[in-house]
Amino acid sequence: MASSTELELSVMTAKELTRIVLAKEQLFILDVRNESDFNDWKIEGDSIEIINIPYFDLLDGVDDSLDQIPDGKKVLVVCAKEGSSKFVAEQIIKAGRSNVYYLEGGMKSWSEHLEPVKIGELNRGGSLYQFVRIGKGCLSYMVISNGEAAVIDTLRMTDVFEQIAKEQGAQIKHALDTHLHADHISGGRKLAERTGAAYWLPPKDAEEVTFDYKKLEEGHDITVGSTTIRIQPVYSPGHTIGSTSFIVDDQYLLTGDILFIESIGRPDLAGKAGDWVGDLRETLYSRYKKLSKDLIVLPAHFGKVTELGEGGKVMARLSDLYKNNPGLNIQEEERFRRTVTENLPPQPNSYQEIRQTNMGKLTPSEEEQREMEIGPNRCAVHDK
Predict the structure, then answer these.
(1) Which of 54, 93, 136, 229 qualifies as a cystine partner to 224, CB 3.0-4.6 A?
(2) Which domains does the chain have, with CATH numbers?
(3) Average pLDDT across the chain, whole number
(4) On the CB side of 112, how many CA atoms lie within 13 Å of its CA?
(5) Share of the chain above pLDDT 70, in %
(6) In degrees rounded to 5, what are phi and psi of residue 48?
(7) Is 360 helix (H, G, I), strand (E, B) or coil?
(8) 257 CB-near residues (< 8 Å, 6+ apart)
(9) pLDDT tens digits, 71-100
């Protein structure tokens, strides 16, 4: 075995970790955050093995914990911001272990990383990208055609969208939100200000906003690339009263937080579950059923890594969801009501403050925004 002086501590970025997760490569993670934070939210993957030993239990050394850490495997130490994991990783190196990494920027960087994934080519020319925020389960989209682009459900890390548009030689003309988000801070308005794009929001969700916006309404199609690609709004309330889906290029159904791959949207994040449950059922069991079953569903979130398909794509055919999604197969109306209003997962972290921020009523600093968004999204009924 090499001496500890010959061993070096390595750093792993959130992007590198994402590639490992998507490639289903084996990785052992030692998470040194406190137990409650770990139980609330952790890094997951098909080939990820993870344990939690709080940092304060390791301050006097790692020797007593080495039997829990495999020798010969790639080991990643993770904490909230970076410092604690770096210290612990160094102790493991000093104990003679090799192939040890710490996560650069900690769970904060994991929460903010966006991975662009190309969904496919569009019928009338152009392409559609999905942006996977793997650490939080958020999904954004970019439609590109003939030198123009539209971004849907933009996240606050807008640099990634601008970079992809630049690489594709496209100018961002539209930023659209399917609804007023409660689990993350929208980057739509910020992106519009930076690029000169129009910012679109459903008016029924925008009654309290403090800024100007374009009204996103059914019957008013949006075109990208000199009328090449049509984004067709479909009013689909239930998660919020204004929730609006999009049919893109007659191929894709962008469902926002109404319909996910393994669950359905919850109606309680604005405190109006009783009022909106009927709208949710009407959207899922009537409005969507009138659409083509061949549409490919692209949601605004995923709840579990099992929803990540090839290359990280989160997508499914609408007909398959009507067969397999439990939220679409509750025939009794009263049972449906109970399912979407009772025994729900905990509400997202700081969701009220996030809603206020997305209305323009709060203007938190960048660091405050990071803190508000820490944790899973919990927008789905079945995300326990």
Answers:
(1) 229
(2) 10-110 (3.40.250.10), 114-373 (3.60.15.10)
(3) 91
(4) 22
(5) 95
(6) -95, 125
(7) coil
(8) 178, 179, 181, 239, 240, 243, 265, 299, 300, 301, 379, 380
(9) 989 999 999 999 999 999 999 999 999 999
Q: Is 129 helix (H, G, I), strand (E, B) or coil?
A: strand
C-alpha–C-alpha distance, residues 239 and 273, integer Å: 9
Percent with pLDDT over 90 in the chain: 78
Cα distance between residue 53 and residue 49, in whole Å: 14
For 239, residues 6+ apart whose C-beta sits below 8 A from its C-beta are 179, 256, 257, 258, 265, 266, 267, 269, 276, 280, 379
User: Picking from 87-91, 224-228, 339-343, 380-384, which range would have the lowest pLDDT averaged per residue?
Assistant: 380-384
Half-sphere exposure of 35 (CA within 13 A, CB side): 2
Cβ neighbours of 190 (radius 10 Å): 17
Distance of CA 302 to the CA centre of its chain: 6
Distance spanning both ends of the chain, measured CA to CA = 44
Alpha carbon separation from 268 to 182, 240, 297, 378 (Å, rounded):
10, 8, 23, 11
Q: Which tokens is 3 given?
A: 């001496």
Tokens 């409660």 appear where? 182
Instruction: Count Cβ atoms below 10 Å from residue 163 Cβ, excluding itself.
Output: 11
pLDDT digits (tens, 9 = 90+) for 3-59: 444 568 899 999 999 999 999 999 999 999 999 999 989 999 989 999 999 999 999
Tens digit of each residue's pLDDT (9 = 90 or more) over 326-337: 999 999 999 999
Give the residue numbers marked as catalytic.
79
Distance of alpha carbon 85 from alpha carbon 78, whole angstroms: 5
Write the DSSP assignment of 226-245 as a string of letters: TTTEEEEEEE--SSSTT-EE
**Structure tokens of 344?**
């729900």
